[in-house]
Write a structure and sequence with these properties.
single chain; 511 residues; 23 helices
Length: 511
């Protein structure tokens, strides 16, 4: 919402700057266009990445609002704004997407959908966003949309092709109406450009309603423009037309206000939010796990109800969801101090792990942390470490995958907690990539190398990590200072340090 606020301020600055420029008030125009617009873009982008779309939206205003009269060419500055704001970003993004640029496609390694599937699905998602604005049926709105059906082909489901064709039709209609109903064209453009980043090629989750915060401005603008144009044509032909449309508008606002109030009543209670989500999104993995977590946090915990919701995920056709079910069975049983079952272990750790999504990674790390602090019945730290290693060794995932390396790191911590220093060192070496983002793993590895007598390797790591560990990572800086002090004193690393990490191995857990 903060990003949306600054984008709107940027558009207002551009709009008033262009008006001032046309009226000859150049000082005001340059102040708004050369200072306020760039400043607003920076603030919007620092609030959230899609603030970078502000220049493209300004270019859209330039194209549609400040179009020259028929038969007259645009000024060179106007053409430059269109080229830099719209044309170049469009060509660049299309080229990078078609070329499958690694920074874009790398994230798909941990997603249950491909780049092509995401782009096809977004055609349907965008219509769903519009539908929720036009007919905001409260119970169907909310956080739990991970059960949204992925488009695996243009006819799988058939609505994929229909959605894409309807978008072509809508864009064609907006082009035809750009002179007669310019608000409709401008609104649709704002909606589509507003979704260009989060509904494009970047491997984000498929569906999130909060992505509509700013694009909704464009959608509502387009709908109101079409409504006003239609009303202006119909009103003269019916009795009391203006009164009817005025009262109709007031009634619409009242209905939307009541809908908003109803949603607020649901959102003020987590129990009500979860209950409503369960009614309309029973297949949502996030929802089932949120309910299970809530049951486990009750006083006293309701482990039976938590386990019931987790067990429903076993019916999923998605292998990752079934793996998550087995993983949460272990978490629930450990929390209830019950012996873990071999069946749950096989579900959680068996087969080929092809993807490792963020929520799955956090669940694995949570299980590791729980077992380190208080081993489960039938699942000691060494046992869990071996399960991690076996699963990773048999996975078809790339060993360069960042989530993959974090799993290796957790296995190293588990082995250290079990007193298996050699295995811990082996996994820490496999986990550390040498990149600055792996600095917490590097700190752990440096301590392990020195503890194992590899002083030279440890010293080189400490020297490198001093440049990479941020100053606000107090734990990492403290450990590096202690290691550096020991190296300078030319003393052997005391075994107590290894024992300290065995007792508190989660000090270096990645955020």
């Amino acid at each position: 919402m903060l990003s949306a606020l600054f984008i709107l301020m940027t558009l207002l600055a551009y709009l008033h700057g262009r008006i001032a420029l046309e009226e000859g008030r150049r000082h005001k125009a340059w102040l708004l266009l050369l200072i306020c617009v760039p400043a607003g873009t920076v603030l919007a982008t620092f609030s959230k990445e899609n603030g970078i779309l502000a220049p493209a939206l300004c270019a859209l205003l330039e194209w549609l609002v400040f179009a020259p009269p028929a038969g007259k060419r645009r000024a060179w500055a106007s053409r430059l704004v269109l080229i830099l704001g719209l044309l170049l970003p469009f060509v660049a993004s299309l080229t990078l997407t078609l070329a499958e640029w690694p920074p874009i496609v790398a994230g798909y390694a941990n997603r249950p959908f491909s780049l092509e599937e995401r782009l096809m699905t977004q055609g349907r998602v965008l219509w769903s966003y519009l539908g929720s604005l036009m007919l905001p049926f409260g119970p169907r709105l909310g956080l739990y949309h991970d059960d949204y059906v992925i488009s695996h082909g243009l006819l799988d489901p058939p609505s994929t092709m229909l959605a894409i064709l309807c978008w072509f039709a809508a864009i064609s209609a907006a082009w035809r109406l750009r002179h007669t109903v310019p608000g409709a064209s401008l609104g649709l453009g704002i909606f589509l450009i507003g979704h260009a980043l989060e509904s494009g090629a970047i491997p984000l989750l498929i569906y999130f309603e909060h992505r509509n915060y700013f694009p909704a401005v464009g959608a509502i603008w387009a709908l109101l423009s079409l409504g006003a144009a239609g009303a202006s044509r119909i009103a003269p032909h019916i009795d009391h037309g203006h009164r009817i449309f005025t009262f109709g508008s007031i009634a619409l606002v009242c209905v939307l206000a009541l809908t908003t109030s109803g949603r607020a009543l649901v959102w003020q209670s987590q129990d009500a939010l979860l209950a409503q989500g369960l009614r309309y999104h029973p297949g949502s993995r996030w929802l089932r796990l949120d309910i299970a977590q809530q049951m486990m946090h009750r006083i006293p915990p309701d482990h039976a109800e938590a386990r019931r919701h987790v067990d429903t995920l076993l019916a999923s056709t998605e292998p990752s969801t079934r793996r998550m079910a087995g993983l949460w069975q272990l978490l629930v049983d450990c929390g209830a101090a019950r012996p873990v079952s071999d069946e749950s272990i096989e579900i959680a750790f068996g087969g080929d792990m092809r993807i490792l999504e963020a929520d799955m990674l956090l669940a694995f790390e949570s299980l590791g942390n729980n077992v380190i602090k208080s081993p489960c019945q039938g699942l000691e730290p060494e046992d869990l470490g071996m399960l991690f290693v076996r699963m990773l060794d048999h996975s078809s995932m790339s060993s360069n995958n960042s989530n993959f390396r974090r799993m290796r790191f957790k296995a190293a911590q588990l082995f250290l907690a079990a007193g298996k220093h050699h295995q811990a060192l082996e996994q820490a070496r496999a986990a550390y990539s040498g990149q600055s983002k792996d600095a917490p793993i590097g700190v752990f590895l440096a301590e392990m190398e020195i503890a194992s007598g590899n002083r030279r390797v440890g010293a080189e790591l400490v020297k490198k990590l001093k440049q990479e560990v941020p100053n606000d990572d107090l734990t990492g800086r403290r450990i590096l200072e202690a290691l550096d002090s020991l190296l300078h004193q030319r003393q052997s690393f005391p075994s107590a340090a290894g024992e300290r990490h065995a007792e508190t191995p989660t000090d270096l857990v990645l955020p």
